[in-house]
Design goal:
271 residues; alpha/beta; TIM Barrel; two-stranded antiparallel ribbon; 10 strands
Length: 271
C-alpha cells in the first residue's frame, strides 16, 4: 500500500471519501473499498454517517489495517464541546480509537489555542492516534504549528487541477505535514476534460485516473468520494503508470480563477 509519512504517522495515499453517503449504501461501499485494498476511510461528524462507516470497517474484518479519519465540526471547537463530541464520534463509529482526528473547519469565534489544547488532550489520552486540521490557510497552519503541543500531521483541503493550491502545499511541506486532497476530481468534472482525456489515452487510463495520479505523484493523498462500486476500482488503479514531467506541467496549467468548488459563509480568507 502506498503511504505518505508525516511526523512518524503513516497516511495511505488513497482513501474513500464518504460525504453524502448514507445508510446501507455507505456501510456496503466502505466494506467493499477495504476489500479492494483501500486502507484509508474518511468521515466527519457533519456527514452524519459515522455509524455506517464504522459498520463497514468492522464488517471488512480488517479494522487493524485501516486508518479511519473523522473531523470535529466547527460548532464543537470549544474544549468541553470538542472532548464530548469526540467521545460521541467514537461511540457512533464503535471503534477503539480514531486513527486521525481533524478540526473540520476553523472557527474564529473560538481561540485556536483552546481548540488545539483539547485536540492535543484527545491524542494524549488515547482517543486519537494522530491529529491534524482541515481547510486551514497558510497563516492558520503557521499559527497552529506554533500553538499545538502535539504534532499536527496533515491539512485536508480542496485540491484538484482547476485550483492552484501551491502556497498551501508549500506550507504543509515546510511544517512536515501531509496534504490530503478532498474533491480531488473536482466533483466529477474532470471526467470530460479534453487534456486529461488525451493524456489518459496515451497511458490507457481514464481522465479521472490521470487526475488522481497527478495528485498522488506529487505526494498528495486523495480521498475521492463515489457512490458506485465499479468506480471504487477505477479510482484505486492508479499506481501502474507514471506521468511525465511535461504531462504534470500541462495538468498544473489547468488551474484557473474561480476553480474553487467548496466555499461557505464561514470559510477562512483563502490564499
Amino acid at each position: 500500500m502506498h503511504v505518505i509519512e508525516a511526523k512518524g504517522f503513516k497516511i495511505p495515499i488513497i482513501g474513500l471519501g464518504t460525504w453524502t453517503l448514507h445508510g446501507r449504501d455507505c456501510a456496503r461501499l466502505t466494506e467493499q473499498a477495504i476489500r479492494i485494498g483501500y486502507r484509508h476511510i474518511d468521515t466527519a461528524q457533519m456527514y452524519d454517517n459515522e455509524c455506517e462507516v464504522g459498520e463497514g470497517v468492522r464488517a471488512s474484518g480488517k479494522r487493524n489495517e485501516v486508518m479511519v479519519t473523522t473531523k470535529v465540526q466547527p460548532t464543537m471547537l470549544a474544549p468541553l464541546d470538542l472532548e464530548r463530541s469526540v467521545k460521541e464520534s467514537l461511540a457512533r463509529l464503535r471503534l477503539d480509537v480514531i486513527d486521525l482526528l481533524l478540526i473540520h473547519w476553523p472557527n474564529p469565534r473560538v481561540p485556536l489555542s483552546e481548540t488545539l489544547g483539547a485536540m492535543a488532550k484527545m491524542r494524549r489520552e488515547g482517543y486519537a492516534r494522530a491529529i491534524g486540521v482541515s481547510n486551514f490557510t497558510v497563516a492558520l497552519l503557521d499559527e497552529a504549528n506554533k500553538l499545538c503541543s502535539e504534532p499536527l500531521v496533515c491539512n485536508q483541503v480542496e485540491c484538484h487541477p482547476y485550483l492552484d493550491q501551491d502556497k498551501v502545499i508549500a506550507a504543509c511541506r515546510r511544517h512536515g505535514m501531509a496534504m490530503v486532497a478532498y474533491s480531488p476530481v473536482a466533483r466529477g468534472s474532470v471526467k470530460g476534460d479534453k487534456l486529461l482525456g488525451r493524456i489518459g489515452e496515451v497511458h490507457k487510463k481514464t481522465a479521472t485516473q490521470v487526475c488522481l495520479r497527478w495528485l498522488t505523484q506529487q505526494g498528495i493523498a486523495v480521498i475521492p468520494r463515489t457512490s458506485k462500486i465499479e468506480r471504487l476500482q477505477e479510482n484505486f488503479t492508479i499506481f501502474d503508470f507514471r506521468l511525465s514531467d511535461t504531462e504534470m506541467k500541462k495538468i498544473a496549467g489547468l488551474a484557473r480563477r474561480g476553480g474553487r468548488l467548496v466555499d461557505w459563509s464561514y470559510s477562512p480568507d483563502w490564499d
